[in-house]
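[DERIVE STRUCTURE TOKENS]
===
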Amino acid sequence: MTEYLKPLPTLSDENRPFWDGCKEGKLRMQQCGDCGHIRFPINRNCPKCLSNTFSWKALSGHGSVFSYIIFHQVYNKAFAQDVPYNVALVQLKEGPRMYSNVVGVPNDAVKVGDELEVVFDAVTEDVTIPRFRLRGQ
């Protein structure tokens, strides 16, 4: 594995189940123990009912492009070699939305509504980043 020089998440007790799931090839998010709402980003309380009980649920990893942008300018030097690159807001099948990248296609091939599936990019021994590709590719 080559040295990864881009920013990495800070792993904590609160977010470790998410990152451990990614490492195992599973997209996991919190599900409220009272109302069943699946939430992201990680939070101590459910935004729907304010309950503090939850479990970690493995999701399908399917979603669609809700919105996206192509970055042509370097905002962080660590990403200079990637410009231009896309950042997509992915609407997951189970409800939450998350930011990621659509990989495996040219940036101009990404369109709102495209059906996606999660893929996992092991960037270090501890961190595997969820990204998305067009479904069926």
Remarks:
- The mean pLDDT is 96.
- Residues 16-134 form one domain.
